[in-house]
Design goal:
By secondary structure, the protein is an alpha/beta fold. It is 47% helix and 15% strand. The mean pLDDT is 94.
Length: 255
C-alpha cells in the first residue's frame, strides 16, 4: 500500500506494458489502489494475478496477452483497452529485457531483438496513445529507462543503448506534444530486486558491491518505484515533462 493518495487518478485509464510481473505487477497494483482503470499486457497468461489484484484492491485489471514486439498486436491491445476501459490517460512503457551479453557476441538478429523490446515497442506505444490523449485534452506518458547507461555498465550494451535512446525519444516527444498537454517523462530505476533479478544475477557479492555505491543503504524493491510513477502520472507533476527521474537510492548523483 502506497501512503500517498493521488485523487485525480481515480477513474483514469492506465495502460502498462509488462504489467503482470516484476516492477510492472507492483505498478498495476499501485494504480488499482488509486482507483484507476488498469489495462496491462504481458507475454504469459495472468489469470491468477488478475484474480489476486481484484481480491487485494477490490479493483480488477484488464489483462491482454500480447508480445509487445508484435507491433500490430501491441496497437490492437491498446485499442482493446480503449474500447473496454475508455481512452488511455496514462501510458507506462515498463516492459524490458536486460539479458546479459558481450559486445563481441552480438549478432544483427540479437541486436534487432533487443531493440524491438527495449526501444521500438516504446515508440509505437507512444505513437498509438497520442491520438487518445489528444481526444482527452492531455495525458501522461512514462517511459521506463535505467541508470545502467548513466553508469556506463558493461554486460548488456544493446540494452544500455536502448536505455539512452529512450531518453532522447522522451525529450523529443515531450517537445512535440506539449502543446496538446501531453507530458512525456522517463523514469530510471536503480537495481530493483525483482524475482528475476534475485534468481539470475543477485549474488551476495554483487549485492554488497551495489549497496556500497548507494547513498541509502537499503536495496530497492518493486514497490519503491510505484510512488514515483504515480506522481508522474498525476496532476501533481503537471508542469514536469521531458525529464528523467532517477529512483536508485543514490547510486547516480547528479548536479
Amino acid at each position: 500500500m502506497i501512503d500517498a493518495n493521488f485523487h485525480d487518478l481515480q477513474g483514469k485509464t492506465v495502460y502498462i506494458t509488462g504489467g503482470a510481473s516484476g516492477i510492472g505487477a507492483a505498478l498495476t497494483k499501485g494504480f488499482l489502489e488509486q482507483g484507476a482503470k488498469v489495462g496491462c499486457v504481458g507475454r504469459s497468461p495472468a489469470d491468477e494475478f488478475v484474480d489476486q489484484m481484484e481480491q487485494e484492491t477490490g479493483n480488477r485489471p484488464l489483462f491482454i496477452q500480447c508480445d509487445i514486439t508484435d507491433i500490430p498486436a501491441l496497437k490492437q491491445s491498446m485499442q482493446d483497452v480503449q474500447d473496454q476501459l475508455g481512452p488511455i490517460d496514462v501510458l507506462v512503457n515498463n516492459a524490458a529485457n536486460d539479458q546479459r551479453h558481450s559486445t563481441l557476441e552480438v549478432t544483427e538478429e540479437f541486436w534487432d531483438w533487443s531493440q524491438s523490446i527495449n526501444l521500438k515497442a516504446y515508440f509505437f506505444a507512444c505513437q498509438s496513445v497520442v491520438p487518445m490523449m489528444q481526444s482527452r485534452g492531455g495525458g501522461s506518458i512514462i517511459n521506463f529507462t535505467s541508470i545502467s547507461y548513466m553508469m556506463g555498465n558493461t554486460g548488456y550494451p544493446a540494452y544500455t543503448s536502448a536505455n539512452s535512446g529512450i531518453n532522447g525519444m522522451t525529450r523529443s516527444l515531450a517537445r512535440e506534444f506539449g502543446p496538446d498537454a501531453i507530458r512525456v517523462n522517463a523514469l530510471a530505476p536503480g537495481w530493483v530486486l525483482t524475482d528475476k533479478q534475485l534468481e539470475m544475477w543477485a549474488t551476495p557479492e554483487a549485492l554488497a558491491d551495489h549497496l556500497e555505491r548507494q547513498c541509502l543503504k537499503e536495496h530497492l524493491k518493486p514497490e519503491d518505484i510505484v510512488a514515483a510513477t504515480l506522481f508522474l502520472a498525476s496532476s501533481a507533476s503537471r508542469m514536469i515533462t521531458g525529464q528523467s527521474l532517477v529512483v536508485d537510492g543514490g547510486v547516480v548523483v547528479t548536479g
